[in-house]
Structure formats: C-alpha cells, structure tokens
C-alpha cells in the first residue's frame, strides 16, 4: 500500500494540525495565552493545500470541482469565518480562539479521507462535507460537557448554589495563580464578576500582592497610596515577568493625616487621583494602555472588597476554548459530525 492509497498528499499534510492543536490546547490550559505566530505557518500551508486541492478537483472532472470542493470550501470560508469573528466581537471567545477557527476554515475546508485497512475515516459523512463546520459543531457539543462536569462535582461535595454550573470555590491564596472570573461581589454571588487577569494587572500596576492587600485593606483602599510611578501591568498572565515596588505611596501621603492634599482631586506624575475612587480603580483603568478585559471601576472595587476579606471565593475557570476545539478536531477526523453524523 502506498501513501496515495491511504490519503491524498494534501490530506496527509493536514495531519500536521493535530500536534499543533494539541500543543496550543496545553498552552491554553496552562497560560490562557497562545502566540499569534503559531497560526502563521498553518495559514500559509493551508493556502497552499487549498490551491492544491482545487487543482486536483479541477483535473478530476465530473462533480469534483463544484460539489466536492467548491461548495464545502464556500461553506467553510463563508460561514465558519464570519461565525468566528462574531463570537470574538461579542466577547464569547478570545482572539486566539477566533484565530484557531479561522485557520481551520482555511486549513481543512473539505473533508479529508484516510484509509486504514478496510476502514475509511471519518466514519460518517455529511451532505455538504465542510470539515471546518464539523469541527465547530463538535467543539460546541464537547464544550457543553463543562457545566455538567462542574455541577456534578459541586453536587457531590454538597455545594448547591446558583453558580454551581459555572464555577467552584477556591482558597484566596490560589487566586494569583488561577485563571478565570470571580463569581462573587460584596452583595452575594454573581455570574459576571472580576476577571482574574485584570486583578493581576491591577496588583502589578500597584506593585502589590494579594497578601499585601489582605494584610492592610484600609491602607490600600485609600487612593492616596497609589504609586508615584506605576509598574507595567503586563497582560495579566500568570507567567508574566513583573516588577514590584511594594506599593510606594504618592507624595504628600500622611501629611496632616492626609487632609490637605486628599480633599480634592489631585494629579501626581500625570496620574489623576480622586478621593471618590476607592482602591484607585478608576485611576488604574485610565492610566493603562488599552482595556483590562472590559473591566469597569465598580467591578474592580467589588472584587477587591471580596478578596480582601474572604478566605474562600467562587470562581469560574472558564473553558479553555482550544481544548474542546482540539478534541472536536480529533472527533471530526475519526468519526465526523457529532450532531449530523448519526443521521447519515
């Protein structure tokens, strides 16, 4: 048996996506960060394979060009690409997640076929064999397992709450090394609390640790304790290299118990400080370049109030989207479409 008996050359080269997506899935779990440079080689190779497939379909004659190549490619590029952009635009997925779907739409638009003995994979087919669409459907199905897993885990531990389908409790000292979103406010549970990456950005900007905040929350709640020269906030990644100054106070702190300079808004080194800004949340968001993942000052303040006192807090770990995407790719290669496949 030759390689051409197993699959076409373009389809064999498309298997490169499997180890690449396995690697980015692991990165997504550990850091929630994937470099854009990962997608460039796959995009370039995908464009070459697309042209190659088009040429093979054109020379094959019959319906190969229109039905087996042009139609599924149009569905992949014309449907999956806009869906990926829309999900990213509304904040449903991250930039790396959207890029992964875009690359898949280009890299594997048409169903590949692999012969192993008497078996041909994928095992099932589709009326329109748009492979990238199948991966997207599988990703959604596999992603739905996450809330079920969380609910079962919490129920087994006797934790019944309105957020048991989207999170679990962790100790406060695990927060600095944890990805996800806080599910608590001073008023109780919340489904949309503080992003923990934004929290790390804030603490690094101030040169503090969460332990510092808990040791003296009254001190750091006062915006007069903002540093003279804030530190780089980084992007909030757990593994980012940071510089800290211990939360150096602004000039004038402590003078006449803070009554002279703190009664009105002031500016130090270009940083606007207001007595109406507990924790310096608004000052932080105004000072940094870009957005702290859409965090609002009130959201940051509420998160800090909870983390300054609570020993255990509920967080939503979120779903590392590239993990179900990788699993969806494997299922698509071996079985096909989890939703439509059983019907054909």
From TrEMBL:
Start and end residues of each stretch annotated as Disordered: 216-275
InterPro entries: Preflagellin_Peptidase, Prepilin_IV_endopep_pep
Ranges annotated as biased composition (Acidic residues): 252-266
CC annotations in GO: plasma membrane
Membrane topology annotation: Multi-pass membrane protein
Transmembrane segments: 38-57, 69-88, 100-119, 131-152, 321-340
Residues annotated as domain Prepilin type IV endopeptidase peptidase: 16-144
Keyword Cell membrane in record: yes
Gene3D superfamilies assigned to the protein according to its UniProt record, in alphabetical order: 1.20.120.1220
One Pfam family recorded for the sequence: Peptidase_A24
Entry keyword set: Cell membrane, Membrane, Transmembrane, Transmembrane helix
Chief subcellular location: membrane
Record GO terms (molecular function): aspartic-type endopeptidase activity
Compartments it resides in: Cell membrane
The organism's place on the tree of life at top rank: Archaea
PANTHER family with a match to the protein in the record: PREFLAGELLIN PEPTIDASE (PTHR36506:SF1)
Protein name stated in the entry: Peptidase A24A prepilin type IV
Organism in which the protein naturally occurs: Haloterrigena salina JCM 13891
